[in-house]
Write a structure and sequence with these properties.
The complex is a heterodimer. By secondary structure, chain A is α+β, with helices and mostly antiparallel strands. Chain A contains 4 helices and 10 strands.
């Protein structure tokens, strides 16, 4: 039978690099959307055990993300562990993550988002759902000069191209 | 041409000469020059022709309000009309051309209009082009449109890039003159996040043209020190060449930065203009004040200039205004100019001051004429003399330059962009900003203050107040003693000079003179808004920045009321013109809107798909093969192949929503009109979702993955809307339900495999048995593929009416899975098919889409009446379904339609008439909702919504296409054209 390979959404987009800003695609690993019921689950332990990091994306909602894919059986086990307080929805293929970093990363992103990216207002670890240009995305500050942008797979290439244009003056 | 450049002084860099051309004539300027200052330095006074009378015009101001010196800059695709020479920085190689003249600026045929001026007064167009009425559209309007406007835009595509950016700050300081710098320093020192925006290339505002000293430092040096301190602070962003053009709700300010409008060859990767949207907790409006012209005869002759502008050219750009200069001033600022001119050795012939005691502290050599007025200026293309009226009669003086100053009007446009009205002040003879603005604090000259000390102190105090209100410990910055500043005596009000014989212009850009305004009042258009429209005063690119107050004063005089009673016209964004490039930013070309790509896009592309835009998605429409003549041939082949072999179609863009939680089934049971509570795990069900008014909102299949987990599909068009609807229901209507909703549209690559051979082909890659017994119609389960290499979801559902499945696999695997299926189905004739074939297949089976679910139909209209549960206590839309109108017998009902002659055709949207009935609205019985050529029927087939259509099968009707005036004889029939017993579906 055929050798079935995965085709990353940004497979044909090469990283953009300069001392001012870099843009690269993060590995298409794991994105697990967690939605809590009335009780908020303790995600810290679960995420830690699964090698994932939690991003709070909305009240009672998180993305648990990681650079490595989670095997089908492991994902089922994770989903079961979340119940009944929360439900997990596998979005590992539904969302694509990119990394923008460098001293001008915030300046580039401010071309697309109305979120105040001052580190005192939007410190590392914070996530916001926002438009980046025309495309809705989740923006997470990883550190002062690094941002993760999580976007619907179908828009990934278009957003990349928009971000590349936004970066152009710093490349 | 004589040089008027002074040998020393100014803020220009004489070591950096710049060559440029005006109307093809080569000239030289220096770095630090504006185009206007460079033209003046080259002795070029005549720079343009006026709009209406084509009068010779010179440079009047040194800033954003310039009404005369509008030029076309650049060449080719970078040609830009109506650029104010006063705002254009000089750069090497700059090419500027005058406008609104032919054949040349010096000899302009259009100047003949001046001879016709007695007939071209206010209201000329309204009075003249009234009759004959039929001429308006074909003759008058085209003529007026051709005559309107000054410069001509290029038709070439703009080669440059633009972008937009958001910014946030505690305090936005608009204008970096004395008050702005004082406010910025005060708040910045306290630690507030500051953005300072100034429209000039060099911050400093009037300080750059000022000769007073502050703490012993010349004003320009003081400004440089302030700017250096601000630039050294990490909490300050300095934006020069940036005009704040609007104040919007939420304390958002719009600003445009001219990033590369001052360079010969813009760097292609850098935008030429950047539009800023600045969200500020507070803002200081330190926009300064506009000097008012005086209204006397010939006040537009080149050589007549605003006194402040003359001072700016003199002190900042080291340009002498002429050889002999007169100053006509109603306030003390004119004397500061006189002192500066004399210090630089330029003859000041006379100072004409209408005040009794004007110039008491003036000690210069110029002849001082008090209680005097300039009534007329003379000179054609360059000023040669002025007439002065004093108590002793009229005197003519030979001068080649005249400065005028009628006082100062605070620049308060932004303060009025959110509805505030300017407030007239008798004390300052000016309109002041409205009081009590939230989030915007006018300061300095924008509040009517005149002298430097007051502006600095006011800026510092207001900056401190705002910073403190935002929680910063701020104290007003203090500065050293000021020496050499003009006194702050208010101007004498002088709206016009009696006895003028020549045209006394009020609005230079629109050629509106004082008599026009008088005429407007006489003819009943004295209201300030009517007068604007009647005379055009205050229109066009400058929107009356210089002229409005004089116009209001003249209207007040003519009406015999105070300017307060006349009021102002409405200030709206933009403060100055903003290019469409800046407004659209990067959103053009392929960045105009994002493309949403299916995970199977590449697969479809490789197989030759022709794509069609569906919202933001690109869907494969059909897959042409070599030798096929047109799309119909491809679509027919795809349709026939699905029914005889098998086809594969990308349906990834259908909306997919996971509904989880203990109350998921209950939520579905309430939003669908049919029952879902007892849907077994592993089964799919077609569902109809109604709106509150009983009309069908959306349809799709939903399957139960687990007891508390459902997988809903929606139409492509309503994917986001349905999720929003469900969220609204869950969060607002029934917050007691514990449900969790997530869009998974992008998680899955989904493909429909339809046709009698679909099972055989699919079975080659699916590990489990998918035979009819193991996997019957409406079965929906997780499946293993490729010997356990991959997990997917398989649904036994069909839109084509064939034995069919939809297979969903994680999106990144979609491409390879589709190729594997193509390979597996090669010997069985598997072919890709697109949405056109999909549409034919579904019409043949009478399956509805949003062509039929168009917001006007209830379930019964489409034959789904029995789906609306009568057993359920409630569902959205239930109550309204019983309305009389929605149960009426003559409602439009879904019906099939075929032409009597298979050689004839019809189109969707065409209307149904009773056979041979006249084509009238009264006879309209419904319309065709979908149509296609069916290769199985051999003719066009259609679905239609027709009155009592379900009872009229077999009736002959006429299909009327009113747009094409086509009539097609047709027959109504059952809305299912192929396999009416649905045998193939269950095969």
């Amino acid at each position: 039978m055929a050798d079935i390979r995965s085709l990353p959404a940004l497979a044909d987009r090469r990283p953009l690099t300069s001392p001012q800003v870099t843009l690269s695609a993060l590995p298409e690993g794991t994105v697990l959307q967690v939605i809590a019921g009335p009780k908020t689950p303790d995600l810290t332990r679960l995420a830690g055990e699964a090698g994932l990091v939690a991003r709070a994306i909305a009240p009672g909602q998180w993305f648990l993300v990681g650079n490595r894919p989670t095997a089908h059986q492991d994902m089922r086990r994770l989903l079961a562990m979340l119940e009944p307080d929360a439900s997990g929805i596998d979005q590992s293929h539904g969302r694509v993550r990119m990394l923008m970093e460098g001293p001008m990363a915030a300046a580039v992103l401010s071309k697309g988002t109305a979120v105040d990216l001052d580190p005192t207002v939007f410190p590392p670890g914070t996530t916001a759902a926002t438009l980046v240009g025309h495309v809705s995305a989740h923006l997470t500050r990883l550190d002062n000069e690094a941002f993760e942008i999580t976007v619907l797979r179908g828009f990934a290439a278009a957003l990349w191209d928009d971000l590349a244009l936004m970066c152009a003056e710093y490349l | 041409m004589t040089s008027y450049r002074l040998p020393q002084g100014g803020l220009i860099d004489r070591s950096k000469p710049l060559s440029f051309a005006f109307d093809g004539k080569p000239m030289l300027g220096f770095e630090g020059d504006s185009l206007a200052s460079a033209l003046l330095a080259n002795g070029c006074r005549l720079v343009g022709r006026s709009f209406k009378y084509h009068r010779p015009r010179g440079i009047l101001t040194a800033g954003a309000a310039e009404p005369n010196a509008l030029m076309t800059i650049g060449r080719g695709a970078r040609t830009e009309p109506n650029i104010r020479a006063t705002m254009q920085e000089l750069h090497a190689g700059l090419e500027a051309r005058s406008q609104n003249r032919w054949p040349s600026l010096a000899f302009d045929i259009g100047a003949l209009n001046g001879l016709l001026s007695p007939f071209l007064g206010a209201g000329f167009y309204y009075k003249t082009f009234m009759w004959p009425a039929a001429f308006w559209e074909k003759v008058y309007e085209p003529f007026i449109r051709r005559a309107a406007g000054l410069g001509k835009a290029t038709h070439e595509a703009d080669p440059d890039s633009y972008d937009k950016r958001w910014a946030h700050c505690d305090l936005l300081v608009i204008g970096a003159g004395p008050a702005g710098l004082a406010a910025a320093l005060t708040a910045a020192r306290a630690g507030a996040r500051i953005i300072v925006a100034d429209e000039q290339a060099m911050a400093g505002g009037t300080l750059l043209s000022e000769t007073a000293t502050i703490g012993g430092e010349p004003a320009p040096a003081f400004a440089r020190q302030c700017i250096a301190e601000l630039q050294s602070l990490p909490n300050v962003t300095m934006l020069t060449r940036t005009t704040v053009f609007g104040w919007y709700d939420g304390n958002v300010f719009g600003a445009v930065e001219r990033v590369q409008k001052h360079v010969a060859e813009p760097v292609s990767s850098v935008p030429v203009e950047r539009l800023w949207r600045i969200i500020a907790k507070g803002a200081i409006l330190a926009s300064g004040a506009e000097e008012r012209p005086l209204v006397f005869g010939g006040n537009d002759i080149p050589g007549v200039m605003m006194a402040g502008a003359m001072r700016s050219y003199l002190n900042r750009h080291a340009v002498a205004p002429g050889r002999s200069t007169a100053i006509f001033t109603t306030n003390d600022s004119g004397y500061a100019l006189a002192r500066n001119l004399e210090e630089k050795g330029i003859d000041v012939t006379a100072i004409i001051d209408p005040r009794e005691n004007g110039g008491e502290t003036y000690t210069g050599k110029a002849r001082l004429l008090r209680n005097a007025m300039v009534t007329d200026a003379h000179g054609g293309k360059s000023l040669s003399a002025i007439d002065i009226r004093t108590g002793n009669g009229t005197e003519r003086l030979k001068v080649d330059a005249l400065a005028m100053s009628g006082g100062f009007s605070p620049i308060i446009h932004l303060a009025c962009h959110r509805g505030g009205k300017p407030v007239w002040s008798d004390e300052t003879s000016a309109f002041l900003p409205p009081a009590g603005l939230q989030g915007l604090e006018p300061a300095g000259a924008a509040c009517g203050l005149i002298d430097l000390a007051a502006c600095l102190a006011d800026g510092a105090q207001r900056g401190a107040d705002l910073a403190v209100s935002l929680g910063f410990a701020a104290t007003p910055a203090t500065f050293g003693a000021i020496a050499g500043d003009a006194s702050a005596t208010p101007a004498k009000v002088l709206w016009s000079t009696p006895g003028a014989r020549g045209k006394a212009f009020v609005d230079y850009q629109n050629d509106v003179h004082s008599k026009d305004l008088g005429l407007a009042v006489k003819e009943g258009y004295g209201h300030v808004e009517l007068a604007k429209r009647y005379t055009t005063s205050g229109m066009a690119t400058d929107q009356g920045k210089l002229s409005n107050l004089n116009a209001i004063g003249l209207l007040a005089e003519a009406r015999g009321v105070s300017p307060a009673e006349v009021g102002t016209t409405t200030f709206r964004p933009f403060y100055t013109p903003v290019s469409f490039g800046a407004l659209s930013g990067a959103s053009h070309g392929r960045h105009f809107q994002p493309v949403r790509r299916s995970p199977l896009h590449g697969w479809a592309e490789r197989h030759g798909a022709v794509f069609v835009e569906t919202g933001l998605w690109y869907r494969s429409a059909w897959f042409p093969r070599q030798g096929e003549q047109g799309w119909r041939e491809s679509v027919d082949r795809e349709v026939l192949n699905v029914r005889s072999n098998a086809g594969i179609c990308d349906v990834s863009m259908l909306g997919k929503i996971e509904i989880c939680g203990p109350d998921a089934a209950e939520l579905l049971n309430r939003v669908y009109c049919n029952a879902f509570l007892k849907l077994p795990v592993g089964k799919a069900r077609y569902g109809l979702m109604l709106r509150e008014d009983g009309m069908i909102y959306d349809d799709g299949t939903t399957n139960r993955i687990a007891e508390n987990r459902f997988f809903m599909t929606t139409t492509t068009a309503h994917a986001a809307g349905v999720l929003n609807h469900l969220e609204f229901c869950a969060q607002t209507l029934w917050p007691e339900l514990d449900v969790r909703l997530a869009s998974v549209t992008d998680q899955w690559a989904q493909m429909a495999i339809a046709g009698p051979k679909s099972r055989k082909i699919l079975q080659t890659i699916i590990d489990e048995d998918i035979g009819n017994e193991a996997f019957p119609y409406l079965c929906a389960r997780d499946v293993s593929l490729f010997g356990g290499a991959l997990q997917g979801r398989l649904f036994r559902i069909s839109f084509s009416g064939e034995l069919a499945y939809e297979l969903a696999v994680p999106a990144a695997f979609g491409d390879d899975v589709a190729e594997a299926l193509m390979e597996a189905g090669r010997t069985d004739g598997l072919m890709p098919y697109g949405v056109e074939a999909l549409s034919v297949l579904r019409i043949e089976k009478g399956h509805v889409t949003h062509n039929e679910i168009n917001g006007t139909v209830v379930p019964t209209d489409l034959g789904f009446g029995r789906m609306a549960s009568t057993a359920k206590p409630d569902f959205i839309g239930k109550a309204m379904l019983q309305r009389e109108g929605l149960t009426a017998a003559d409602r439009p009902r879904l019906v099939g339609v075929v032409p009597l002659d298979p050689g004839h055709s019809f189109r969707s949207g065409a209307h149904i008439l009773a056979k041979h009935a006249a084509a009238t609205l009264e006879n309209d019985q419904g319309y065709v909702t979908s149509s296609a050529f069916s290769p199985h029927i051999g003719s066009t087939i259609g679905l239609a919504l027709v009155k009592r259509g379900n009872e009229r099968h077999g009736e002959e009707v006429t299909i009327w296409n009113g747009l094409r005036d086509e009539f097609t004889a047709a027959r109504l029939c059952a809305p299912i054209f192929f396999d009416p017993a649905n045998e193939r579906l269950h095969g």
